[in-house]
Design a protein that fits this description.
This protein is an alpha+beta fold and 204 residues long. It is built from 8 helices and 9 strands. A 7-stranded mixed sheet has the order 2-1-5-4-3-8-9. A two-stranded antiparallel sheet has the order 6-7. The longest helix is centred in the last third of the chain and has 19 residues. The radius of gyration is 16 Å and the shape is globular.
């Protein structure tokens, strides 16, 4: 059995297993065509209009939803994605973060060298419409909630969920901290493993 066939079988088995696994949350399932969206986003502190459809033209896309910039788990996750950004790029994949933070908060967070470090864009979803299109719910803002800088968090929270979307626009895998009890950093390692295997499967 040649290496390419082995990678193809392994990738197929992993994706099939994820599709068959029971889900305790309501996110769209593997195999579903991902909803496209455009949104105001920030990269390296500069805002622009981001399009998922445009990103998919270059290859697989990781769309990861996170509760809030400048909070413990989200800071860890953003830093991990930034640290591994070169590996995602080598695998032909694009990273997109999404939260209900305002674009002003995301401009700061996206440029912060301790977190996103300008390595990938993060999109603002203040009314939760993008999250809802992925069948994710946004909780109400928590009174007196503050971030690690002591600043008030005045928006709702989208549960930490990561979607690996293939170049064909279909969801290849879904990871949820709520349902799968994953550490924020696990979202990064698991999604990287998927896109690396997808790349290996298509390489002769």
């Amino acid at each position: 059995m040649n290496k390419r066939l082995m990678y193809s079988l392994a990738t197929g088995a992993m994706i099939a297993a994820m599709a068959a696994a029971p889900s305790a949350f309501a996110a769209i399932a593997p195999g579903t065509t991902a909803p496209t969206f455009t949104a105001q986003a920030s990269k390296a502190g500069k805002d622009f209009t981001l399009s998922l459809a445009d990103a998919l033209k270059s290859g697989p896309v990781i769309v990861y939803f996170f509760p809030s910039a400048y909070t413990g788990g989200c800071d860890i996750e953003a830093h991990a994605f930034a640290t591994e950004a070169a590996k995602f790029k080598t695998a032909g994949a694009t990273i997109i973060g999404v939260s209900a933070d305002s674009i002003q908060r995301l401009n700061s967070f996206s440029a912060d060298p301790n977190y996103c470090a300008g390595k990938f864009p993060i999109a603002s979803d203040p009314d939760g419409k993008i999250a809802a299109s992925f069948d994710l719910k946004m909780s109400a803002a928590e009174p007196d909630a503050k971030d690690v800088r002591g600043e008030v968090i005045d928006h709702g929270f989208i549960s930490r969920t990561t979607f690996v979307i293939g170049r064909d626009g279909k969801v290849a895998a879904v990871f949820s901290s709520e349902a799968d009890h994953l550490h924020p950093q696990d979202h990064v390692s698991k999604s990287l493993a998927i896109v690396e295997q997808l790349q290996s499967a298509k390489t002769p």
